[in-house]
Write the structure tokens for this entry.
Amino acid sequence: MNFFGSPSLEFFTPPGEGIATQSITSNNAGRVDVNAVSWPAKLHLNDRVLNISKGQKVVIIGRQGNTLLVVPFR
């Protein structure tokens, strides 16, 4: 556990799925529902998408602390 810096990244294999309940942009985190539980979420930086709209399906590729890392479902 890292007490002094940013939480470490953990990538999921296989990735999960969820639904954005708030818009998520490259500058602002939002929220995603996964199995009826709401989680904070942000766009994964390696994706070229600049935003995810509320109600859009997402792929959860990992987490940083308790924040999910997401990309749009394609």
Residues 11-72 form a domain with the OB fold (Dihydrolipoamide Acetyltransferase, E2P) fold (CATH 2.40.50.140). The beta strands are 9-20, 24-25, 30-34, 37-43, 51-52, 57-64, 67-72. The radius of gyration is 12 Å.
